[in-house]
Write a structure and sequence with these properties.
The complex is a heterodimer of chains A (112) and B (112). With 112 residues, chain A is mainly β. Chain A is built from no helices and 11 strands. By secondary structure, chain B is mainly beta. The chains are: A mainly beta (112), B mainly beta (112).
Chain lengths: 112, 112
């Protein structure tokens, strides 16, 4: 039972590089989310999706893009990495009936 | 703009004490409010509250929602050192009813 799988777990980027954080869930959840968490801070919502083909901006969407072509996958793209994007990123999916949010293990991204 | 405010921001108690954590919110199209506990890694689910005035209980933890006054409280009785964590609340709402925005969290430290 895999749940929510995020890759990579760690990545170091140079300023201006691009990358994609992958997120896959096998629970057939419609709702999926990307959050970032800076040290000592709460979770900030970047983007979310309520189903395949539908995405919406969260609190801090600038510098990121997402797509949701299938129910299972919700990748997060960083186009021009900046030091301000150094953070831990969490992908999550939501069981709408119980409310429980299932998180991936997190991806630690450092931009130098 | 959606707003979630938790108080206090941090709390230090001794084992056996009872604590009350507060969460006030203003979100569009409110559906439910969720509580999470975060230790070293990703948050873990505690409660989902949908109806006003109905207490949810799990062991020493309980929570209640007031939809008229737009707040929720999380109570922990007979605290233990294992309760030390960050407690997060997150109202679910938004134009597509799928936006889950976290508060900044309350850091609870329980000393022996």
């Amino acid at each position: 039972n895999a749940g929510v799988t995020q890759t990579p777990k760690f990545r170091i980027l140079k300023i201006g590089q691009s990358m994609t954080l992958q997120c896959t869930q096998d629970m057939n959840h419609n709702y999926m989310y990307w959050y970032r968490q800076d040290p000592g801070m709460g979770l900030k919502l970047i983007y979310y999706s309520v189903g395949a083909g539908i995405t919406d901006k969260g609190e801090v969407p600038n510098g990121y893009n997402v797509s949701r072509s299938t129910t299972e996958d919700f990748p997060l793209r960083l186009e021009l990495a900046a030091p301000s994007q150094t953070s831990v990123y969490f992908c999550a999916s939501n069981n709408r009936d119980t409310g429980e949010l299932f998180f991936g293990e997190g991806s630690r991204l450092t931009v130098l | 703009e959606d707003k979630v405010v938790q108080s206090p921001l941090s709390l230090v108690v001794h084992e056996g004490d009872t604590v009350t954590l507060n969460c006030s919110y203003e979100v569009t199209n409110f559906r439910s409010l969720l509580w999470y506990k975060q230790e070293k890694k990703a948050p873990t689910f505690l409660f989902m509250l949908t109806s006003s005035g109905i207490e949810k209980k799990s062991g020493r933890l309980s929570s209640i929602l007031d939809k008229k006054e737009l707040f929720s409280i999380l109570n922990i009785t007979a605290t233990q050192t294992g309760d030390s964590a960050v407690y997060l609340c997150a109202p679910l709402g938004g134009t597509s009813y799928g936006k889950l925005t976290f508060g900044q969290g309350t850091i609870l430290t329980v000393h022996p």
